[in-house]
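Private note to self, pasted from the team thread so I don't lose it. Backbone tokens:
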């Protein structure tokens, strides 16, 4: 059988996203079948993690399976051992590989040599599991996705890319405010617009955070400096100084706006101090929903897969 990998939100269609959200909601209410009993996944991480590592580990345990965590020092993809060799070895041991990498190309290499599903747990291009969990969180709070409007304020990074694709698949209108030179890349925008043409979602780009968040249903932001960009931190703080999400900016959105952030947060930079505790914040619900959405995703990918 053909192995299905999950590297991008766009590897799913709108119906599949909706099914995952519904399945995750059931699992969150305590209905988690142990459909992965006897199966195992390798958690292959090049980057440190809190939410991703714990949520995938517990997800596999709750589904009846067994996770094996592999730290950067243990594997050293591309340094100690090539990605192709790592994939060809691991797929003889495990039923799936959850990989958190610096480069998206590493994930592509793994898929080329793996006979078991590869799941993108974060790369420099996308963070698809985060975006799906975010969609679950919005659905829980709003009762729908279609025709809502989400505003992303900040860097057109991997989280923004996956949110854009998820919105375009599910009919959510997407606004993004970024400084010049830090916008969503043209290739990602083109892909999203093709998806939006089918779902009816509208995509708007601006350099003005106030214009982006006016009357929207969801305001979302992320760190200005991601892992691997530490040498740019001071310059980015200067460039993004007008893009902080604070109570004044949030007040321009709808009265029942949701505030979202994937964490970790840099208080006093992309968000004002105390914003995570604002009544509109659903940030910690987002973090919890990583567990439930990933359970649904793993069950979908691995319950019918055959190890090569």
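Design output:
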């Amino acid at each position: 059988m053909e192995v299905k990998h999950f590297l991008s939100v766009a590897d799913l269609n709108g119906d599949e996203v909706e099914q995952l959200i519904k399945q995750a909601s059931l699992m969150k209410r305590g209905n988690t079948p142990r459909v992965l009993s006897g199966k195992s996944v390798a958690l292959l991480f090049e980057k440190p993690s809190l939410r991703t590592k714990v949520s995938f580990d517990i997800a596999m345990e709750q589904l009846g399976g067994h996770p094996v965590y592999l730290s950067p020092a243990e594997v050293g993809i591309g340094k100690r051992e090539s990605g192709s060799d790592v994939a060809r070895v691991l797929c003889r041991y495990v039923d799936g590989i959850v990989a958190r990498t610096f480069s998206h190309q590493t994930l592509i290499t793994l898929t080329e040599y793996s006979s078991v599903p590869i799941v993108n747990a974060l790369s420099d291009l996308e963070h698809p599991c985060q975006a799906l969990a975010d969609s679950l969180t919005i659905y829980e709070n709003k009762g729908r996705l279609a025709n809502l409007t989400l505003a992303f304020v900040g860097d057109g990074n991997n989280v923004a890319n996956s949110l854009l694709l998820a919105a375009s698949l599910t009919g959510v209108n997407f606004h993004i405010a970024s400084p010049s030179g830090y916008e969503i890349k043209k290739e990602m925008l083109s892909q999203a617009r093709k998806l939006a043409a089918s779902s009816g979602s509208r995509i708007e780009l601006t350099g003005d955070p106030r214009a982006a968040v006016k009357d929207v249903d969801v305001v979302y932001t992320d760190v200005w400096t991601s892992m691997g960009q530490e040498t740019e931190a001071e310059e980015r703080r200067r460039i993004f100084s007008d893009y902080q999400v604070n109570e004044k900016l949030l007040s321009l959105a709808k009265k029942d706006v949701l505030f979202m952030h994937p964490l970790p947060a840099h208080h006093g930079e992309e968000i004002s101090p105390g914003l995570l505790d604002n009544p509109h914040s659903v940030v910690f619900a987002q973090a919890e929903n990583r567990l439930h959405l990933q359970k649904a995703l793993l069950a979908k990918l691995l319950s019918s897969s055959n190890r090569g």
